Amino acid sequence: MVVISDLAIQGAQMLLVLTLAPLLTGFVRKVKAQLLRRRGASIVQPYRDLLRLLRKEVILADTASWLFRVIPYLIFATTWVAAALVPTFATSLLFSWSADLIAIIALLGSARFFLALAGMDVGTSFGGIGSSREVMIATLAEPAMIMIVFTLALLAGSTQLSNVASFMLSSSVGVRVSLALALVALVMVAIAENARIPIDNPATHLELTMVHEAMVLEYSGRHLAMIELAASLKLLLYISLIGCVFLPWGLALPGAGAAAQVAAVAVYIAKLAAGGFLLALFETTVAKMRVFRVPDFLGAALMLGLLGTLLLFVSRSL
Amino acid sequence: MVAIVGLWCVAALLGIAGFGIVAGNWSQGSRLTYGATAATSTVALITAVLQLVGGTGVPPSIVLPLGLPWIGAHFRMDALSAFFLVVINLGGAAASLYGVGYGQHEDEPQRVLPFFPAFLAGMNLVILADDAFSFLLSWEFMSLASWALVMAHHHERDNIRAGYVYIVMACFGTLALLLAFGLLAGPEGGYAFASIRVHQLSPLLAGFVLGLALLGAGSKAGLVPLHVWLPLAHPAAPSHVSASMSGVMTKVAVYGFIRIVFDLLGPTAWWWSFPILAIGSGTAVLGVLYALMETDLKRVLAYSTIENIGLIFVGLGLALAFRANSLPAASALALTAALFHAFNHALFKSALFFGAGAVLTATGERQMERLGGLIHRMPTTSVVVLVACVAISALPPLNGFASEWLAFQAILLSPQLPLWGLKLLVPAVGALLALSAALAAACFVRVFGIVFLGRPRSPAAERAAEVDRWSLSAMVILAGLCILAGILPGFVIDAIAPVAQSLVGSRMPEQAGMSWLSIIPVAESRSSYNGLLVFCFIAASASLAAYVIHRLASHALRRAPAWDCGFPQSSPATQYTASSFAQPIRRVFGGYAFQARERVEMPPPGNLGPARFQVDLRDLAWELIYTPITNSVSVAAERLNRLQFLTIRQYLSLVFSALVFLLLVLALWS
Predict the structure, then answer these.
(1) What average pLDDT does the segment B643-657 reach?
(2) Domain range holding A238?
(3) Which of B548, B588, B589 is best to mutate for the A interface (most A CBs within 10 A)?
(4) Residue A197 has what pLDDT?
(5) What is the 8-class DSSP label of residue B526?
(6) Are residues B290 and B221 in the same domain?
(7) Chain center to CA of B562
(8) pLDDT of res. A310
(9) B445 lies in the same domain as B524
(10) Over residues B340-348, mean pLDDT
(11) Which keywords does the record carry (chain B) (predicted)?
(12) B355 and B407: one domain?
């Protein structure tokens, strides 16, 4: 019985993240437009974009290989699997033990590895510039993320996300310096990983500062739809991760009834909306950085994460 | 019995080496030699696997009346030896199979054929040896055989230098090991490992032995700053030998270190883990940074070996730290992570060197800047290299991630360590480990993206063709093993368990019985990872997505010129190159690691001369350590040179004063 309900929750979560991801992207865009006193596109515009892309033919560069056509599905699959393993509204996911937080981060690393390869496949200068900058950003963002994971794992005594969330819900957490450091670092990493301002601008083309958009420049049609969906999923994943670890209130615990689950979904959507709003607000207040300022930004995140871990090595109560 | 089979395999390999001397002149001699080597290595591999998995009780041993008369030659195959014999003979068998095809392209086969089986035999003997004399003899035999292989293409100037640096470093390493065994055996000279284990050393002497083992085994394994020979020598040899040297011989060095420090040296002192952790993590980061700056394909792979050796030594250092503080379970976890990574590295690094050899055969190029687009012309090779690149970048669900994950789990156990120094050192080591993993991913995006993707950058790359079936089969087997070990890591961990049991007195929990074949290093509430399920999930959701889209959405497809923001450039020279790809990382890290300087020389307005861009990288290991040493040696040699031109009277007085001095010393001593 428990297995069946866990399976149902797991399935519901996989569908939920998939359907909510474009909505979140649309919401962030809408809020940003409103803050800039523009009217902005409808909040469901990303769904329309995806449908339009799916209906279009793919225009493939002459020099593209088979890998270029496989990669969109791989990126989508790894990101979806990673997003399915982060507790969104309930902690009792059937497969949460198959990959812990380190593995989830590494799954996103796999997606990035393939995306960077896709950027180099056609053999254009824009693809190369995007891939080369993406891996540079990743070399700092990934260790920073691992240090954040260490901080959480040392506190909760587990790298399993559902256990971390349960620990955060318990009364033994309290206010801790290390958690504050980890939160700041995680937000910084999340901004970098999702190619948001000030690291990268998701709305630009034809600019030498672009990173993510440069890698996917040669994609079109259904392939581009997959990549766009994966990017939305990744944004949703990071907001869910921050919500699950630092704002675990409202998560349905194992054994909760159906009504509690529905309430948890509502709380989760409210968390996503708050996260999206804060992101849009932040993006409108800062300017984009030069590419070679990015290492300073991420280096700070890495140092914060390392400091958090160090504090916990020194004393469990910090 | 098992030890005898192992020794017969060594004898067979030596016999094949003898056959190889004459076989070089026949048309089929090369195939026969490599085929026989592959068969023998497979027999040795099966023996070792059986011993590792099924061997219980007293390890099989044998004493032969060879070597020093009062010692004899002892051989023994305990769990540690069996594990490393698996790694060596797996790599050896794959390299021989690859050699059946690749060896055909050799211009002077008689320079490779005799030495390759001898090299494998030497490595097997090092692992089997159970006394200091046979160990050192086999070690030196292995070094000399590999030196001969490095010098196989001796017409190239660089190779002569590589061989020279290699032989000097190899002799230095053996010297350090010789002194280490001398201290271990003590004044009574009990050189058999059994009597060394009984012999207790004072803490000071034990510390010396640790330092000497670190110098001796570390120079063979390529620890920074003893690594300088490795990126010269490994790429100079033919590619299947490079694979054996990088994938396998470095593991023999790791074995030597484990044998001395974990087995022979007795109880662990509290401070031993500090230098090993510091050197290991530094080696990992510096190795991969060197690899990112390099543009010669085989040298990139050699530098990446240095990185992986660093990761293995970090695991060993953690195991020592836990062992010194009597935390056997955590120590077993760290040791398992290190050994698992050693096994993995043998798989994917051999596959990558085979791939580099295939590229070399197909294009005649090692320089990444002149390659590109090979995925269209070498489909199987590119798939194998892609699998190996994903594996070495520690990405799930392949095997590199499994061992890296275990290492992270071991680090998360280290707050239990009572020492303050370790509490501060271990988080930094963890950050460096994560940094090196991320840099490795960047490095292998670069390798695969520049060599196999994009458009060909030279006519040779344009004309490339897939290599022969023997080479391909060896590569495919290794890539398959990478995937298998990645999705079923529990079986590898269980196979390593007897080694951990014998060295640190504990083992990781039995993994084969875990539900759904997941791996659980400590407890399920703490952490678990299931490569099989992750692999199935990715495969299922990717196929599902592809199916749904091809069923419901458009599947029209049109080929057209690349878009490139509306300004596609026809010349392949406009693509990103290997050096331009690494430029952002050079800007971020190169200033610290290599004191990198970039200079742009712009001609003044009106001058039509080309603008120039120059990058200066400094290898600090050479500048700070080796150049002073070589300078002082040549200065000393210059001074001592005068001794060659003395008169007979002066020589006689020199001999006489030396005699007086020695007698004086003797008189004062007693």
Answers:
(1) 92
(2) 2-314
(3) B588
(4) 86
(5) T
(6) no
(7) 40
(8) 92
(9) yes
(10) 97
(11) Cell membrane, Lyase, Membrane, Oxidoreductase, Transmembrane, Transmembrane helix
(12) yes
Q: What pLDDT was estimated at residue A205?
A: 64
Q: Where do we find the tokens 């991630």?
A: B401
Q: Tell me which chain B residues have a C-beta less than 8 angstroms from the C-beta of A110.
A: 390, 395-396
pLDDT band at B383 (very low <50, low <70, confident <90, very high): very high
Q: Which of A312, A290, A294, A283 is nearest to A157 (CA)?
A: A312
Phi, psi of B635 (to 5 degrees): -65, -45
Could you give the CA distance from residue B539 to residue B542 in angstroms, rounded to a whole number? 5
Cβ of B563 within 8 Å of Cβ of A59? The answer is: yes
Q: Are residues B565 and A205, on separate chains, in Cβ contact within 8 Å?
A: yes
> Which token pair is B46?
């099966």
Give the residues across from A50 on adjacent strands.
Answer: none
B377, pLDDT greater than 90:
yes
Give a yes or no: residue B38 inside a domain: yes
Q: Is B516's pLDDT higher than 80? A: no
Cβ burial A208-240 (10 Å sphere, 16+ → b, else e): ebbbbbbbbbbbbbbbbbbbbbbbbbbbbbbbb
Complex prediction ipTM: 0.96
Residues of chain A predicted below pLDDT 50: none
Examine residue B521 and say whether the peptide bond preceding it is cis (omega within 30 degrees of 0).
no
Q: Please state, in angstroms and rounded to a whole number, the distance separating the CA atoms of residues B157 and B234.
A: 15
* Residue B430 and residue B341 share a domain: yes
Amino acid identity at B229 = W
Q: How confident is the model at residue B348 (pLDDT cuts 50, 70, 90)?
A: very high
- Of the three residues B502, B522, B544, the one that is the final residue of a domain is B544
Number of domains chain A contains: 1
Residue B173 belongs to domain spanning: 1-180+193-199+216-228
pLDDT at residue number A208: 62
Q: Is residue B104 within 8 Å of B24, Cβ to Cβ?
A: no
One domain, residues B371 and B512: yes
Same domain (yes/no): B221, B271: no
Give mean pLDDT, residues B562-573: 84
Task: List CB contacts (< 8 A) between B438 and chain A.
Answer: 109, 138-143
| B258 has pLDDT over 70 | yes
**Nearest CA of chain B to the CA of A291: how many Å?**
9
Q: Looking at the 3D structure of chain B, how many domains does it have?
A: 3
Looking at the fold, whether B120 and B28 belong to one and the same domain comes out as yes
